[in-house]
Amino acid sequence: PATTATEVSVGKSTGDRLSCNTTSFQKKSRSKLVSIPGTRPSVQNGQLIVSTGVTSLDYVIGGGLAVGTLLLIEEDRYDSYSRMLLKYFLAEGVVCGHELYVASAQDHPSDIIQELPSPILDDIASPKPVESQTKPCDPEGPDTMSIAWRYQNLPKVQTALASSSRFGHYYDVSKTMDPEICQAARCHGFYLPEHSATVSPMPEAYVALLKNLQEVIHREGFDGSLPQTKSRNVLRIGLHSLGSALWGDDLCCRDNPSHGHALTTLLYGLRALLRSSLSVALVTVPSHLIQNKALMGRITRLCDTAVALESFRGSERETNPLYKDYHGLLNVCQVPHLNCLVCDLPDNKDLAFKLKRKQFTIERLHLPPDLSETVSRVSHGGLAGAAMLGSSGCGSAGNKHLDF
Amino acid sequence: MLLEVLQGTEAGGFILLQDTVSYSGRHLLKSYISTALKREEEVVHVLGFEACEKEFRDGLDRTNAQRLHFHNAYSDPLGWTGNSAFTVHQFTLEDVSTLIKQTPQAKAVTLVIDSLSWILRHHDPAAVCQRLQALKKGGAVRTVIVLVHTDMHQRGTVGSIRHLATSVVTVAPGTRGLGAVAKTTRRTKSGKLMQDEETFSINEDLSVTIHSKLSHPGHTHVNTDETEVDPTANLTFNLRLSDTERQAKEKLALPFVFSKEKKSALLQPGPGSGRILYEPDANDDYDQEDPDDDLDI
């Protein structure tokens, strides 16, 4: 892939830990560095990256979303979590001061903007400290260990994935964003029923979308057409449910769609637009409705980063005890190699997500230890202790404390 | 939950009734219509493609019958004779709105389509989805109830229509001869999902009797009822502890067990976690000079 328009020349690469506050090292930077609020150079390949709004997702796709690339999210069955990810993405844009472009055939873009989650502004992306750091040793407490007491205060196994540097914000899902904050953000919308009075045949809907997007990018100067006096900003593009029947596309309805290339042409044109402008796009596609798997493969190849969500709601997995702590599985299908040969990813492929009120966490799916009642291990308090497994080995978050 | 599907009074409801050739969903559809008609001031418009008006009105309550408007698309759905009441090609937002405007005094309008399979055969499925969405959002109609025969269409088509629906009811013949089985899925505006599976039957007056609620079909957790074999039994040596032996074991003081204060002191993160305490022995040559100082290079 060609170099993006926003490649940052990182001459002195020792200062990569820019955002980490444990060092007072200040990188000597030339003025070539594009400094846009809400973005930072990636530590892996020097690309300018933005946060997706979910810090765990940033970690899983390699630090963040590079400006000029396209993130594909394959929707879950009832479009609940993918819609949430779209809202996180747009909310992050509002908080960072980016401009927004929202396109949907189902809901009006202003409705989507009004439903954005509210940011938690006093707790900006700081990893929670381990609570038990200075807990004194108490032999009578149920959590104390009598033999392995030196390991008492060590943190339990971290299953939540997070990187150490500050990037991205946290949002409270139960509240919606303040209208003042929403109005402060510049937002362009594309609502398909408004653009064509009659039912729009395909692929005219996609052509209209692409033309509108190109016009907005050119008019607002994201492709460098405006003179340098205006400060640079990033355009965040959110396209909801592309490929669904409401866009006039029968990709999801028929096994052999009549215009099978319409969506792929749109993605190709969209990626070309993104590469030549300071913008980043998130696209959701209802892949569970697409019957033609080869087509889904083509769509994935045409996007840079691809993530698939599978929710447990309404399926038989909901009652599986293995999955009881989570809301669904997340699969990272593809990650781009931008100006590099290999990309650095977390090696664990089994990821599960859980939507909590203040955080969308993505964790490694692990098997809890077998602590059924029939296992003959007794637990008595006191000096003798018990013959149980150590707590640092297993990742159980359970109440049973384990001792050597 | 089968009966609660109709209880939502907010606009934009879309109830999808899925049936197959083994069990027809029309009885349940008529039951829903009669429930809607029992509510005051509510008008039901029916686009009937598959049954004639007489057969459709059969069984419905006579007193409410004038609030049911049947648009005959059964005799001539494709408009071959030229004077059909309603044709398949008239399934657009404007034409349906014109039909609804015939009853302007209604407080709430329910639109019933029997069945959508007819329309899906003559129109592009994507266009049908767009028109249904427009009807849902249009505001002229409060609820849309649609009957679809799932075995007539491709999976993707049925899936796309399901995606638009707020409630989906799938009916199938019952296994034990008690009645039929209905699987209901309801999606509220906040995104909450509720599912249920019930056995039901429809009485003469078109009311629905729920027989039983089947347990959640995904309940696969099986209690382990096989008894675990106790390995300490049937041995030639004794692995068990009597009570006195257990008490003696617990009283045993383990080595390297410190008092509480010493443990707390050791657990506090001190100024230096590793301190080297060196006391030079008599034999140690503790000479501060660097032996390489006299090297002359």
TrEMBL record, chain A:
- What Pfam families would the database entry show? PAXNEB
| GO cellular component assignments | cytoplasm; elongator holoenzyme complex; transcription elongation factor complex
The organism sits in which domain of life?
Eukaryota
Where located?
Cytoplasm; Nucleus
Keyword field contains Cytoplasm:
yes
The record's principal subcellular location, in a coarse class, is cytoplasm
Entry-linked InterPro entries: Elongator_complex_protein_4, P-loop_NTPase
Role = Component of the elongator complex which is required for multiple tRNA modifications, including mcm5U (5-methoxycarbonylmethyl uridine), mcm5s2U (5-methoxycarbonylmethyl-2-thiouridine), and ncm5U (5-carbamoylmethyl uridine). The elongator complex catalyzes the formation of carboxymethyluridine in the wobble base at position 34 in tRNAs.
This protein is called what? Elongator complex protein 4
UniProtKB/TrEMBL annotation, chain B:
What residue spans carry the Acidic residues bias annotation?
281-297
In the UniProt record, what gene is named as encoding this protein?
ELP5
Q: Name one GO cellular component term.
A: nucleus
Specify the species.
Esox lucius
Q: What is the lineage of its organism?
A: Eukaryota, Metazoa, Chordata, Craniata, Vertebrata
A Pfam family matched in the record: Elong_Iki1
Indicate where this protein resides in the cell: Cytoplasm; Nucleus
**Protein name as annotated:** Elongator complex protein 5
Q: Where is this protein primarily located?
A: cytoplasm
* Keyword Repeat belongs to the record: no
Keyword entries, A-Z? Cytoplasm, Nucleus, tRNA processing
Molecular function terms, GO-annotated: tRNA binding
Q: Where is this region: Disordered?
A: 263-297
Task: Kindly list the biological process annotations in GO that this record carries.
Answer: tRNA wobble uridine modification
Q: In which pathway does it act?
A: tRNA modification; 5-methoxycarbonylmethyl-2-thiouridine-tRNA biosynthesis
Keyword Translocase tagged: no
Protein family membership: Belongs to the ELP5 family.
Tell me which InterPro entries the record gives. Answer: Elp5, P-loop_NTPase
